[in-house]
Amino acid sequence: MSDNPLIPGDDAAEAPEIEFEFSEETLLVIPDEEVIEVDMSFGANLVSILDSAVVDDIGSTRQDVHTSFKNSRQQWEEKIKKGIQWLGLNTEGEGNTDVDGACTAVHPLLIENVVKFQAKAIQELWPARGPVRTRILGYTDATREQAANRVKVYMNHQLVDRIPGFYSDLERNLFRVGFMGIGIRKAGWNYGTNTPDPTVVYAENFYVDPATTHLRDAEEYIEVMELSPRKMDNLVASGTFIKPDDNDAEDTLEPNEITEAIARAQGFDLNLERKGYLVGESHCYLDLDGADPLLPEGGSAPYIVHFNVKTGNVYSIKRNWREGDTSLTKRLWYTVDQCIPAFGFWSLGYVHLIGDLAASATVALRSLVDAGQFANWQAGFKSQDAKFSDSDTPLGFGEWRDVNLSPEELSKAFVPLPAKEPSQTLLTLLKFMVDSGQKFADAADEVVQGASNYGPVATTLALLETSQRFYSSIHKRLHQSQGEFLKLIGELNFENLPDVVNFVVNAENQYVRRTDFDPSIVDVLPASDPNAQTESQRVARAQVELEMAARFPQFHDMREALRRFYAAMGTDGVDKILTNPEAQAVSADPLTEIQAAMSGKPIKAQLGQNHAAHIAVKE
To answer: How far apart are CA 39 and CA 549, in angstroms?
Structure first.
């Protein structure tokens, strides 16, 4: 059979040749359809698969929510801006009056107590032995103990040596906690360095419903960040964001009012040409009506939306629950450090507690200094008839100037303003306000100053413990939030680290496995102790435990008591200076074991020994 097609009705006939003529007018060339690759992974950006109208509505809604949250805290922002002035960082041109040379000093009541709070908190949250300790969940065996120890060693090495700026960021955050009552930290992962990427989120750039008490219960919260053109290009190139519109970029980014007040107080000017994008990161619940392939039936679920604050254009929409989590539980990437929780999300700080006292003390201080200046350097009126050289130049110390006036004319030519010495009543009020603020903010110093050198030690310790209850409650809250943040970093290590990581600590080769960070086995905790606020308290408690163990050795493990005592003192390498009874136990012939036992050395039995002979000799 021929492969050529046949003409119907004439099987033997050959197929005729047919000629086709083509021209540009009649030839229609259909190009290949462009193939668009869509990322369908769990962490994909969903903007590309959603209808543009839906995306635009999501962005517009985020803009409205941001504006609503911002308007709800106007009075809070005004209080913070006033408190920045009371810190006294830059007082040029400020004073009780507009008179040149008037006192512009600010009483250090507020900043002194904020700095004390910062110093105490960082000492407890970052002890010398490192900020991390671990605890085994469930049963304990040698394998789990080794895994927990590897996690502790690696995370301390990670936070101290591998994450630059973690310590300084913690200090800055604690200053804000003491000053404005709240500090916010965010956990993330840097895929370039393959390490956690923790950052401090300034409270003035974080927006949430003020009635919210915890982020896990919030329907939505928004972080506003400034992205430079370079950072935006990197996010687009990595596929994290879609390409922004041309009108999204701003030639000059307007700073937040609180940020501007802080910069102005320090003598900086933010009115510079700073090009970039003002991007909001919204953690919210969305119902995509089945557009999400993982939720074909729709329903509300947690997502993270990145949008332009000015235009509302959406750059990214990503799922915010763990892969495989059928309950769709929202993941928390932020932790909140609070000073004094009160009426809602925004806690109270020293600016709320003693800010008005600091302002009043500043007014009293300036009045006293101005009164002293007027009393020492009097001002007044002089007659125009009093003519002498350099009449507008003040007299110097020990200077006598020639005048062409008689003593009587000279006395009549000048009328000084009445000036009083600084008021003792005002000085007493200033002392009262300062003492009240100091007593409220740091009662421990008041106890130390008022304590007698001859009083009983127990009484002084009891007074100190009572005076530290105020800070003790704050320290427990900081301990809890520090634990939440360290757990986030531990979970990120479990999800992103290679299977095995080799590292060096104190010239010793170490390693850690990714599976060691399993949160169901090893719990990551802060090294701070919420029940002891000072090193002396921890050492004293360990000393009591050691004394009780020495008094009743039959009920205690002396090696463990000594290990806890050395740990409280911050001694490194405790296991190297303590003997291991199991490792040093003697197992030999009966006479050698008897000699070892008589010298206080431990002995042990081994498999294969003639136990009957040992028993006969030792009895």
So the answer is: 63
Could you tell me which residues come within 8 angstroms of residue 47 by beta carbon, excluding any fewer than 6 positions away?
Answer: 55, 242, 314, 315, 316, 317
Q: What is the pLDDT of residues 573-604, one digit of tens each?
A: 676 677 665 555 556 667 677 766 666 566 66
Helix, coil or strand: residue 359: helix
- Rounded to 5°, the CA angle 27-28-34 comes to 145
Alpha carbon distance 562, 605 (integer Å): 27
How far CA 274 is from CA of 229, 253, 256, 528, in Å, comes to 10, 6, 13, 41
The answer to whether the pTM exceeds 0.90 is no
Q: What sign does the dihedral 340-343-348-354 (CA atoms) show?
A: negative
- Which residues touch 242 (CB under 8 Å, ≥6 apart)? 45, 47, 48, 236, 315, 316
- 216 token code pair: 């896990």
DSSP reduced 3-state for 239:
coil
- Distance, CA of 558 to CA of 564 (rounded, Å): 10
Q: Is 105 in contact with 88 (CB distance < 8 Å)?
A: yes
Q: Could you tell me which of 492, 553, 616, 400 has the C-alpha nearest to residue 186? A: 492
Query: Rounded to whole angstroms, how far apart are CA atoms 494 and 198?
Result: 16
Considering Cα of 510, then 516, then 517, then 521, what sign does the dihedral take? Answer: negative
CA–CA gap between residue 466 and residue 447 (Å, rounded): 10
Rounded average pLDDT over 334-349: 92
Dihedral angle sign, alpha carbons of residues 142, 148, 153, 158: positive
Tell me, what DSSP letter sits at residue 32?
P
Q: Using the Cα atoms of residue 226, residue 227, residue 228 and residue 229 in order, give the sign of their dihedral.
A: negative
Provide the CB-side half-sphere exposure for 39 (13 A, CA). 16
Distance of CA 551 to the CA centre of its chain: 45
Q: Which residue has the tokens 């690696």?
A: 154
Q: Which residues contact 17 (CB under 8 A, 6 or more apart)?
A: none
Main-chain phi, psi angles of 285, to 5 degrees = -105, 130
